[in-house]
Amino acid sequence: MDVLPVTSERELDPTDPYAREAQTFPRLSAEMAERIASYGQEERLSDGTLVFERGQRSVDFFVVLEGAIEIFETGEEDEPHVLTLHDEHQFTGELDLFNDRQILVSGRTRGASRVLRVKRSDFRRMVSNETDIGEIIMRAFILRRVGLIKHAQGGVVLIGAGHGGDTLRIQGFLMRNGYPYRLLDTDVDPDAGGFLDCFHLTPEQLPVVIAPGEHVYRNPTNAELADDLGLNETVDAAHAYDVAVVGAGPAGLATAVYAASEGLETLVLEALAPGGQAGTSSRIENYLGFPTGISGQALAGRAQVQAQKFGARLIISRSVTRIDCKSTPFRLNLEDGRTVSARSVVIATGARYRKLDVPDLARFEGQGIHYAATAMESSLCTGEEVIVVGGGNSAGQAAVFLSRTVAKVHLLVRGEGLAETMSDYLVQRIQSSPRIELHTRTEITALAGHRFLEEVTWVHRPTGEATTRHIGNVFVMIGAEPNTEWLNGCLELDSKGFIRTGVDSQGRTLASPYATSRPGIYAVGDVRAGSVKRVASSVGEGSVVVQAIHGFLHPTVM
Questions:
Q1: Does 206 reside within a domain?
Q2: pLDDT of residue 2
Q3: pLDDT value of residue 6
């Protein structure tokens, strides 16, 4: 079934989906195959028939009845590399079957084969109606994508300096969007030079992304990558959607899931990648239903797939720069000049971490100054001393996560302690960790380095004592500023720039606690004035606001 043998080493790795063969490449029962047959049609295909090809959109779903379909990627010199072989009662596909992105791999028959072909629209209906089959397919698709990422299959090659700002930016973009890649660090990887020679590249042109077919993208922007790699879905600019959700953090994704599942035509617009600020969290341990915790990226990835399963469409790496709210449908202007229209709008743009008020900060952003603490950032500082700045849960989660692999975490806070700003379970872990040292009433005052951050100075304010350490990575998680600058006076904001909801300018209560000063526009999550800055509350607000949207769109029904 899996052409790549399941070795004893792989069996010992619980994080490798290919070791979970029965779940990643399941075999359906004959009865299940019979039920699927009612949604598709049977076809006989000759040996070597190409059933789908990398780069296509909206491919069909296949169940093998006789023969086999091999899944392959094109390797060096366009030689196919077979990843998996699906035979009797196994099925093709992975997460891109739930959206309209370009697929990552190709498939062709091996030997004369008999298959069930299920068209995309019928596949969605089948997954929704046949819930037991849908659960098997969904689990397999998620594990297959994790496998592609873990083994860098079906993706791209990223070449650049591992600590370089643009390399880290591209790496983070690919990682947070669940796109497989292989990193060749020119500072340490001996294979990098060969790639540079092969593609006639010079160090000044780095970083570069090399896609199958020898397509070379020199230091592409996130938007260029999203378009060139087919991560964005096609959207009809002339069509007015029932609801446009601006922001794909927990609140925005929850809105998308509930709106799409209740039959509303839903479009999600996200400036970077699904997950928002929560997507950068290494581990969320107090989210209901996940007793062992879940990373912010994993939670966002599952929510994104869930929304797309119900038909929500997603545009990433496109900031909304302006909203025309004087007439309906509302028009949203994107940074690339396009506009989209919607009969209602939910603003879930969240908040971003404040920046340190210290000289040379901008010079080291992305090159030693980080605003997320994920496995990618952790790999940059294994065995080193690092600094985490902040006293909230995000800072606490980062400190605990980083302490597993670094020599020491210096946790710097301006206040007297952590008890008033951080959950107790995190405070206890920090206090008991021999690798975390808490510095209260302390602030960073200077940064130094040549190409990358190399030295940090902090001051203990009560005594004025200054400390300088050779530290190359600082994780900044202080306070929050709302992402509302693009509203251009459309809505009423509070003194800090958060969106007022629930009451009008005269103090009268509105129909929904998430209604803004403009009928048909709602705000949920961290961007909303008075909201509780928690993932669970953001998800709750995103789910509840859909009732108000129904009431606005169909007032006579409600």
A1: yes
A2: 41
A3: 42
List phi, psi (to 5°) of 469.
-130, 150
Asked if 333 and 455 sit in the same domain, the reply is no
Structure tokens at 60: 């069909």
Q: Return d(Cα 549, Cα 493) in angstroms, integer.
A: 21
Q: Report how far Cα 216 is from the mean position of its chain's Cα atoms.
A: 24
Asked if 523 and 497 count as a contact pair (C-beta separation under 8 A), the reply is no
CA pseudo-torsion sign 356, 357, 358, 362: positive
- Cα–Cα distance between 181 and 415 in angstroms, integer? 41
pLDDT band at residue 334, thresholds of 50, 70 and 90? very high
**Are 36 and 141 members of one domain?**
yes
Round to whole Å and give the CA distance between 8 and 394: 38
Least confident interval from 77-81, 87-91, 393-397: 77-81
| Residue where a domain stops, chosen among 110, 134, 150 | 150
Q: What is the CA radius of gyration of the chain?
A: 25
- Residue 279 covered by a domain: yes
The letter for the amino acid at 394 is S
Backbone angles phi and psi of 186, in degrees to 5: -65, -15
Grade residue 1 by pLDDT with cuts at 50, 70 and 90. Answer: very low
CB 406 within 8 A of CB 384: yes
CATH number at residue 125: 2.60.120.10
Whether residue 401 is found in the same domain as residue 288 = no
**pLDDT at 78 (0 to 100):** 61
Place 269 in a pLDDT band, splitting at 50, 70 and 90.
Answer: very high
Is residue 188 in some structural domain? Answer: yes
| Residue 375 confidence class, pLDDT cut points 50, 70, 90 | confident
Contact in structure between 373 and 402 (CB atoms under 8 Å): yes
Q: How many residues does the chain have?
A: 558
Mean pLDDT of 196-220: 86
Residues 262 and 388 in one domain: no
The verdict on residue 290 lying in a domain is yes
Answer yes or no: do 411 and 463 share one domain.
Answer: yes
Q: What is the mean pLDDT of the chain?
A: 92
Running DSSP on this structure, what letter comes out for residue 163? T
Which two structure tokens, joined as six digits, stand for 506?
């005269």
Pair 334, 226: CB distance under 8 Å: no
Structural domain containing residue 15: 8-150
pLDDT value of position 353: 85
Q: How many domains does the chain have?
A: 4
How confident is the model at residue 75, as a pLDDT?
A: 63
Tokens of 119: 């068209």
Strand ranges, E, within 425-503:
436-439, 442-449, 453-460, 465-469, 474-476, 478-482
Structural contact between residues 208 and 309, judged by C-beta atoms closer than 8 angstroms: no
Cβ neighbours of residue 412 closer than 8 Å, sequence gap 6 or more: 387, 388, 389, 390, 439, 442, 443, 444, 458
pLDDT, one tens digit per residue, over 399-434 is 999 999 999 999 999 999 999 889 999 999 999 999
CA distances from 555 to 101, 341, 547, 549, 551 (A): 35, 20, 11, 10, 5
Q: What is the pLDDT of residue 266?
A: 97
